[in-house]
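Structure ticket #2291
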Amino acid sequence: KMAADTSVEILQKVLENEILQTTKVVEEHLDAEIQKLDQMDEDELECLKQRRLEALKKAQQQKQEWLSKGHGEYREIPSERDFFQEVKESKNVVCHFYRDTTFRCQIMDKHLTVLAKKHIETKFLKLNAEKSPFLCERLRIKVIPTLALVKDGKTQDYIVGFTDLGNTDDFTTETLEWRLGCADVINYSGNLMDPPFQSQKKFGTSFTKLDKKTIREKKYDSDSDDD
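Resolution: structure written out below.
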């Protein structure tokens, strides 16, 4: 028992030391920042303030512009013609080609609704595949659901079915977010080399870490899976 107590004490001291070291580094950083501000004259401080205000103003204007173009919500567009207009006016677009009778499209809808609110920098749309035969043929869409990922008016990538999302109907919103991040169609803050397959252990599926370049260059090749 004494040996166990000693081990606990040692561990506690190590942890306390780690915390002290971290606190010291943070304090030193703050001191340096305060010193830098103290050494600035009024004109420099005013200049810094103005730059920050300008950056905030610019970010707010950008947000308003996105909202005016229909970003921030997951919307259905009525026709193929609308698709061309929508992708022309926004840099990043995710379009879900769906069918009413396909259950997996409802799963995709649920995740896209969440992501549209979170990633206001990207436009999220849905289009009925049965009402857009020309576009489906042009984009070689054979599997429902398929997400077309559009950058600068050009379709750069596809998410075909749930293959890239862990091959399960129970994939998480974070998994879809990661996959969209790999295509560089959203501003992704996580680690692209570490996919968040949260259901990995539950389903006993073997997932490998994917290289960003491999994902982007992957050929469109999938069997039809409409169930």
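Closing remark: Confidence is low (pLDDT under 50) at residues 201-227.
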